[in-house]
Design goal:
By secondary structure, the protein is an all-alpha fold. The chain is 75% helix and 0% strand. The chain contains 23 helices and no strands. Helix 2 runs parallel beside helix 16 and helix 4 runs antiparallel to helix 5. The longest helix is centred in the N-terminal third of the chain and has 35 residues, at 60-94. The two termini are 35 Å apart. The model is unreliable at 220-224 (pLDDT under 50).
Length: 477
């Protein structure tokens, strides 16, 4: 007997269950929702969807096959995520990231303070792959300096957030960047390169806006710049800072441009960085081994642990310590877990023909590429508003719209770009979203107060829509 076609109500039930569970878990667990609550919500919603599919006559073996198929499709992205964890840990212990931060702080001057905040936050976020750690460390320092220089806290917060979320979007170390590419089956570096068509105009307009604000507001004193010097001295007192270390990220960028496979690039970058750590950071390694005795075995243990586990150098400054701490491959496991459970949910939705039913209803009303991108944009924003979690605003719309984009002959990279231009960027603009609530608390500026100055974050979806409706750079299969 052939399975019955699900109704539109049946197709929406698993999604509504997921939305309800996510809202409850976010209210109950806050920022810790990624540690398991969201994954559990995805599994429960998957169970509801599987029950409806079986009721409609879909065989369990077919549902299981759908789950296995989608999980298998995500394995390359999961492998890349683990390699990203290795790269992050090795670049930190080798001094590559601290060196990038150290030299990045050199550009800070009152005459162009706000654009400098954007650039510094962007550089740190690209290097670390995390907007949260960037804002919690460099961001806090910049807020204090901005106050002393006479800049409104909301303006400074907006500049920091704009730069941090730009860096988070384009960094191959970012979990949301990897998540968007994984959900749509797009190669990581293809996703990043294609995203530049909307991200570069957005960040250039952002820099221009903050350039005008800096001229209008001006600066009062350079005395507060001593805080930057203290930050630099702390880093230089822990790491051996050398411009030679910058050759490692340059080499990685060259390999990316040469289109060497992502796994190979990340592995090579990690191995070279471990060698650089042994060469440049012997004093730091001695502080991370028992009794401070850097033997061959102890050094090997620390270097390998930087690839797979937690490393936390102690500088005496809590803010710097938080910035320099890494989790290696283990730090990526929550995102890996989320991807797997999201693929289970997607497999059930596909096997039960729910996504097909929803996308058919959408396509019956959407007649253009611009209309489809606009619908996906609205869905990402809706999930950010209703679930309070940027990961859900990427995962669920990604699975919902992937088939629709393919049916219209559109490449998945267009969807992956839309997911991140909207899902990642707008999460920090919503007060009850984990991102908005966290950054408001850290920076001491309410979400709705810094919102007008978080230019990059609200400009990104607008540029996405303009580019989509213009048809620029959009190719059909």
């Amino acid at each position: 007997m052939n399975p019955k076609q699900p109704s539109i109500v049946q197709s929406l039930v698993p999604i509504l269950v997921l939305l309800g569970l996510i809202m409850v878990t976010v209210l109950g667990t806050g920022a810790d929702a990624l540690a398991g609550a969201n994954q559990l919500s995805l599994l429960v919603a998957s169970g509801v969807g599987a029950g409806i599919a079986v009721w409609n006559g879909v065989r369990w073996a077919e549902i299981m096959q759908g789950m296995v198929h989608t999980i298998s499709a995500s394995l390359p992205a999961i492998l890349i995520l683990l390699m990203v964890g290795m790269l992050s840990g090795s670049w930190m212990i080798s001094g590559v990231i601290p060196t990038m931060i150290y030299y990045g702080l050199e550009i800070l001057r009152p005459a162009y303070f706000l654009p400098a905040c954007v650039v510094i936050a962007a550089a740190v976020a690209v290097a670390t792959g995390s907007s949260w750690s960037t804002i919690a460390t460099i961001g806090v320092a910049l807020i204090g300096i901005g106050q002393a220089l006479g800049f409104d806290m909301a303006m400074t917060a907006g500049a920091i957030i704009s730069g941090a979320y730009f860096g988070d979007k384009v960094s191959p170390l970012s979990d949301t960047t990897n998540l968007a590419s994984a959900v749509t089956g797009t190669d990581l570096f293809v996703h990043i390169r294609y995203m530049m068509q909307t991200t570069v105009p957005s960040i250039l307009l952002t820099l221009a806006a903050f350039g005008v604000l800096t001229v209008v507001v001006g600066g009062q004193s350079e005395a507060a710049a001593s805080g930057v010097e203290t930050f630099q001295r702390t880093i230089a007192g822990t790491y051996r800072i050398s411009p030679w270390l910058l050759l490692i990220p340059v080499l990685v960028v060259v390999m990316i441009v040469k289109k060497i496979p992502a796994v190979a690039v990340l592995m090579i970058g990690s191995v070279i960085a471990v060698g650089a750590a042994a060469l440049f950071q012997r004093e730091l390694l001695a502080t991370l081994v028992p009794e401070g005795r850097l033997t061959l075995g102890a050094g090997y243990e620390v270097l390998t642990r930087s690839l797979y586990g937690a490393i936390a150098p102690q500088t005496g400054d809590a803010a710097v310590d938080e910035l320099l701490a890494t989790g290696g491959m283990a730090g990526m496991l929550n995102t890996v877990w989320l991807i797997i459970t999201a693929m289970v949910f997607g497999g059930v939705m596909e096997a039960g023909r729910f996504l097909e039913r929803i996308t058919t209803a959408i396509l019956s009303r959407v007649r253009s590429t611009g209309g489809l991108v606009s619908t996906a944009t609205g869905s990402c924003l809706l999930f950010n508003l209703t679930t309070g979690d940027q990961y859900m605003s990427i995962v669920v719309p990604g699975k919902m719209f992937l088939g629709a984009f393919r049916q219209n002959g559109l490449q998945p990279r267009l969807l992956s770009r839309t997911l991140e231009d909207v899902g990642t960027a707008t999460s920090v603009l919503i007060p009850w979203n984990t991102c908005g609530a966290t950054q408001a608390t850290i920076l001491g500026v309410p979400t709705l107060v810094y919102l007008p100055f978080a230019v990059f974050c609200w400009l990104s979806p607008l540029v996405t829509l303009v580019v989509a409706w213009s048809g620029w750079g959009i190719r059909k299969n």
